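Quick illustration, no need to memorize.
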Amino acid sequence: MLQIFMFLELQVPCRFQEIVPLKPMNIIRAEDRTEAINWNLLIGKTLNDKYECPQFTPLLTPVTSDNYYYTGVSDAERRPSVSSQIATPAICQPSILNQEPYGSRGYKLMASKKMVGVFITVWMKRELLRRYTVSSVKVCSVACGIMGYLGNKGSVSVSMSIGRTSFCFVAAHLASGEKKGDEKQRNHQVSEIFRRTFFPRLPLDGDNHLPLTILGHDRIFWFGDLNYRLCLEDNLARQLIKKKDWRALQVFDQLQRELEDGGVFQGWREGNIEFPPTYKYSSSNCNRYSGGIPSRAGEKQRTPAWCDRILWYGKGVKQLSYFRGESNFSDHRPVSALFVTQLEVVKSTNAKIVPLPPLSPL
C-alpha cells in the first residue's frame, strides 16, 4: 500500500493507494466502505492525540458512507452535545458528515472519498474553522482503468472554498508499465480526469460563482502514484542512484519531460526532487530495489522510478519542503510536501489577502 501525505498550511489532505488489494472482485463489485471508515478513525485519533484529545474520534456514530463533506460550523459544534447526519452516497455528489463538538482544539474531518483502492481524506484545524468561512465542500471520482471506466485506475477529488479562495485536491493512480509508449496512456488518463471531474452546483451554493472543474480553482494540488518512469537502461539508472546523482537521473524522468514539453500539466509545478526513487522495492520490509543484477528468482525486474509525486497549480503557493518517508510496508515509499499559501478573506466590506504561517509537519 502506498501512502502519500501532503501537509498544507490550512488542510491536511492524506492520500492512500490500494487500501484494498486490486483484485478483480474488488474492482467490479460494490464498494466496501469498511476500510475508508477505519482509516478515518485511525487518522482522526492520531491527529487529535497530538493535541491531547485522546478521547476524540472523528466518527463517534459510524457513518456508513465513504463520501463525507463538511456543511459548516453548526450550533452543535459549539455545545457539549453530538449530532449526526447521514446521506446516501453518489459519485460526484456529496453526503453529509456527522458533526461532533469538541471545541476549537484538534482537527475536523472535512471531506473523504474512496474509489476501490484510492482514498483521499481532508482535515482542518478546528481553530481555523472558527476564523474562516469554509464552504462548498464537494467530492468527485473518475474511474479510467480497465476499459476506460473501471476504478482500478483514476482519481478522487475534493473541492472546497476557504473565504474567497477555492482549493482542489486530486489524488490519482495512473496506468502502470515501463515500456516505451506507456506514458501516453498515463497522459490520456490525466486528460480524462481533467475532462470528467465535475463539481455540480448545489442549492446551498446560492449565487456564488464556484468552480465546476479542476482548473477552475485558485489553488490545485495533484498527488499520487502517477506511475511515470525513467527512460533509461536499468543498470545505468542504478549506477546514478548509487551515486545519489538525482539531477542527472531526472533528465530521463518522463514526468519532468512532460512538464517541460507541455504534454500534460501545462503550467504546473513540482518541487526539487532530492531523494531516491520511490518505486519499486523488492517486497515489504525490504530496502532493496526489485530486480537488478544478479536478479533473484521470482522477483520482478523493474527500473527504479519516481512514481509517487506531488504537483501544484495556481498563484500564491510556496512549497517549503518535498521529501519521502521510509515506511517499508509497501513496494513504494511515501512522499510528503509542506506548503504555505495565501488566502483571500473578507473582513467587513473589504477583501483582504492574508498569508498565514505554515503548519509544522506532524
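The first helix runs from residue 24 to 28.
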